[in-house]
Amino acid sequence: MVNEIKAQTEVSVGLEKLWQVLSSPKDFAAIAPEIVPEQIKEMQVIEGDGGVGTVILTTPWSILPGSAGASYKEKLSELDATKHEIAFEYVEGGFMDRGFSYMKTNLQLSAKGENQTEVDVKISYKSYIDEESTDRLTKTAVSSALNFLSGLEKRLSGAAA
Prior knowledge:
Layout: E1 3-11, H1 15-22, H2 25-35, E2 40-47, E3 55-60, E4 72-80, E5 85-92, E6 100-113, E7 116-127, H3 131-157
Antiparallel strand pairs: 1-7, 2-3, 3-4, 4-5, 5-6, 6-7
């Protein structure tokens, strides 16, 4: 059974500006280490042309307890420019090494004003570990996504329009 955990945040960046970065894995990978340097050491596109199926390799400093520097791969599994929805699915390492058989992060963007975007974050997962550990790790996943969005907001709101 696939479970879900959800969160929502608003960022002070226009929808199109935010979508432009999130929907381009190459741009996303290039700036991620600058946006959340405490989380990501290095990120690079290792397969694909930027569309669905593109694979990103991330080397974190330490996102999960006991996994400092352990790289993981995520695949762009959904990209809908009409709905402004994007999803990344873990395919190797990271949460997959910590008791999950499936984990996907969906981001759904909605304009709330000229320079305001609401982002719905949904983590879908299957876990084969105890409930307490699953709860802790899924909250870490949500926290990491929200932290990234906050860093991206700071970066883009300071950039020229």
